[in-house]
Amino acid sequence: MNKTRIEAFSDGVLAIIITIMVLEIKAPEEDSFESLKHLIPVFLSYVLSFIYVGIYWNNHHHMFQVVKKVNGSILWGNLFLLFWLSLIPFATSWIGEHHFAATPMSIYGFVLLMCAIAYNLLQNKIIKLEGKDSILHRAVEKDLKGKISALAYLLAIPLAFVSPWISGLLYIAVAMLWIVPDSRIEKQLN
Length: 190
Hints:
The chain is mainly alpha-helical. 76% of the residues lie in helices and 0% in strands. The relative contact order is 0.13. This is DUF1211 domain-containing protein. It holds the Pfam family TMEM175.
């Protein structure tokens, strides 16, 4: 099976996710700078989620750059990833509208954790099809960044009830960890 359809479909879904997130930002009724103040948490949550979606798009692109073929299992794995990514707009809206309150922050972390798990499952399905000698396997076999990210999400979910700001800092730290495009695959290609 050719990989181009899965890439095109994924690109389209990610574009829609970003569109939904930005449409959640409602313009204020008033026409003053003061009226924008209540939108600061909404905008900040949008920025963080936009970065996360961008990170997933970037890494998905890099991963599929080395994929030679796909099968039904990979198609379903990709859909599982897209399902969890499609919940980012909901979680983003909730944390923004409720000014980073504990429950929305923990749910945001849960969605991010599930996105990470889904991405890892997809990666493993590709490796299973392409084998242990594949470029992808060689690139990701020591996935320290992935393990750190999952641990940070696991800590951030309950810590949201201690301090939502600690959770927020952990989410930002993970985003900063991944914001520089993952070069492991490019290194294997070179």
